[in-house]
Here is the input.
Amino acid sequence: MSGKPRLGVFKFASCDGCQLSLLAAEDQLLGVADTVEIAYFLEATSRIQPGPYDIALIEGSITTQHDVERIKQIRADTHFLVTIGACATSGGIQALRNWSDCDEFVSSVYATPDYISTLATSTAIADHVKVDFELRGCPINQYQLIEVIQSVLAGRRPRTPVHSVCLDCKRRGTVCVMVAQGTACLGPVTQAGCNAICPEYNRGCYGCFGPAAQPNLVSLTDQFSANGMPREQIVNNLRSFNGNSPEFRVESDRIQAEQDGEQ
Amino acid sequence: MISNASKMATDSPRSPSLWVPKTVVIRKITPEVENVATYHLAFTDADAAASYRFKPGQFNMLYMPGVGESAISISGDPESPELLDHTIRVAGNVTRGLTQLKPGDTLGLRGPFGSSWPMGQCVGRDVLLVTGGIGLPPLRPAIYQLLKRRQDFGNLHLLYGARSPDVLLHQNEFDDWKRSGLTIQKTVDRSVFGWKGNVGVVTLLLERLHSFDPSNTVLFCCGPEVMMRFVARTAFDRGLTAEQIWVSTERNMQCAVGLCGHCQLGPQFICKDGPVFRYDQIAPLLTVEGL
Amino acid sequence: MTLKEENHSEENLPATPHHEVFVAIDGFALLFDVLKSSGFQIVGPTIDQDAIVYDQIDSVDDLPKGWTDVQKPGLYRLNQRNDDKLFGYNVGPHSWKKYLFPPNVALSIGKKNEDGWEFQEAPDDPPKLAFLGVRACELAAIRIQDRVFVGGDYVDSTYQKRRQRILIIAVNCTQAAETCFCTSMDTGPRCTDGFDLALTELDDGFLVEASTPEGKAIVDQLITLEVTRKQQQSAELARQNAVDQIKKRMDTTEIRDLLMSNLEHARWDEVASRCLSCTNCTMVCPTCFCSSVEEVSDLAGENVERRRQWDSCFNLEFSYMNGGVVRDSTRSRYRQWMTHKLATWIDQFGTSGCVGCGRCISWCPVGIDLTEEVAAIRKDAP
Here is the structure.
């Protein structure tokens, strides 16, 4: 042991945006960099060191058989494994393939589909290995990430809220877009972390931070329906960045089944 | 008509902030059992030390800057407040953080807060102290006071249960306490080789207890809610009434002064109306799931 | 003459009505200048984000002239009036509590030096604020928060400091929303006390009533006229109009015992199936006071600040303690909120925590109406 905890940052199927959040937190990152040894972080340095790692940050979802093998190896090499972002914690926007025919995508997008080896689904890291902490968000909140790293180093429970986006809207004085404008908003069932940015700009919440604690999806989608939103659109709303998170998935499947049953 | 509160809000002189902790220094850390240690704290400011008094059963908010506050009952002698004992089990972020501190380190303290064990009720009566595990430290200040004026009270019994013999707290003081006139009975859930004491829940000790007069007894109980309910039930069987029983309750105490809302149990703010309640004031609330 | 006196008594006028004067609409702008020259920042109603909110305002032009609102459970819409009333709306998404009990405020700061930690009160110098447009239910809410924050053994200095620096200019309601039920809670719609000035808006100006020396000092600097009989009658009609428009009722008979003896009522499960546990009702409530404290620390961890933020009993973590979460279901959290607001608040503070403003009804995204919940429990209480 060199004395400093060893940190690894690993990427799976993702846009790199969460790793960029980490890099964007320059000042804080420098502070953290002093207290850890960055052993693996391709986005920041090409110097690669083998495990074991005290802390691993995992970005991205599992979409190939190779991913499945690789995450198992990282897990075996890691003491405390943290997944960061919607891809790693729920499968990400690419999990939309879970409701579609993946082979059809491959054959229509790629000139030589034979070269493509992929799974039919995009799934969360936790579906494959034990995860010690999940940090939500599309992208993650850099301050929350620093909090998680500092907490893990100090042996604390990270203080990241599980309350709804609504609380943050109210704290900052944003008027409810659902009540005042009839805008469909996932805020009441979505975990805070973004400081309620979309409603502040007159948009409904897209659910970037995934389901809040004990969310009541059925009641909210009933209200969307009562406000005149077609079922198809409700399903689309739920199936976005965190569409494959269990709570959002169960609800969109339920509404889809209702719609299919009527047709 | 303007209410009194509104008058106070608008007219009265500004009150000092409740939110500013006083600095305390860790004088000594006594390891007790696994994951439990007693922190002996002293104010760095002479005025703060001189004005500080607490009653048995009260608690302080201990503050680790950057981590947060935790409500910890005071476990030392109320007549020696120059060194404040806090017997702490590692449970959350603050208590875990405290394990990284050493004598000479400082932290913040707000307090004392909350209601106390009704020591006046004990005069001329038998006193039963029934507790389990980490529930003993909040009763320790009461034990000191009872033993200091031993002649004022009838029979004194401590009935103490724990998971196993190795997690019984403050055992090094038990001989002193016995000599001073406290009867001590211990029980454990799980026996180990060499244990000659009782095995089973603490209510068994209460069922079998002799030498107290149910009509002239007070019972103090501190432990998990389910234990306190069973202790009360057994006490009723032994002839006590709810008005003779006091319990110490726990909730998520944050501000400690009834202003943040976290620790409510029905009409009670556990932090300022409690933590010590006469059983009849709190019993109906303890049986409602999720109240 | 006799008839008119009878009208007076029906209108529930305060025992000692203050002297009223008339300020013409053209002279109303002067109020802003007088307040500013008296050192006040003015906060009051203005249109923002498709609603009438409370914010800093500079002149009459910032007021929601000619606007009103329509409210129903889970719905709020702005509408244009067919006149130029400045205060012709009902209470909206904001309440004055954000100025007296701010959503985010520093409580204490700590600094680590070679001798260890030192703590002191966080610097806090709130401005003198003039609240313009406070309704009767909101005066009641301020009275209730006074009891919470300064009426007990422990006084919250951040609240007290702000409270001592405000001037309250109330406005009598001349209409009501579908969600209003102040008459059930005995808090309105008439402003009877707790203000420095109270206005009643007429077509061509305001009746102005001063009830404190501070209020009187402001009025003395305005251009005022004696109130005519006709103006008096118009004001009474306008105020009566608010009373007449309030249709929502909540039966508060023995409400404390009703709720506390029905803690296992099936209705709690029913409402939990609709409740989002999203915290909106508690956030818009002008009396809800729950909060949590957050640590803000520099990277070295040697300068820290404790900040208090609004929190809510609807949050799962709110009742967290070592050993688990106490209120681990929406059922238990909704029950906590409603029984606290309407029942145990009475034990704690000698008053209901509800003022009948209806905000929790309008701003619930799924339109849960607590008056209906009370009625449902009352209907089949054993």
About this structure: Residues 14 and 331 of chain C are 41 Å apart (CA to CA). Chain C touches chain A at residues 48-51, 53, 74-78, 93-94, 98, 103-104, 273-280, 283-284, 294, 299-300, 309-312, 315-317, 329-330, 362-367 (CB under 8 Å).
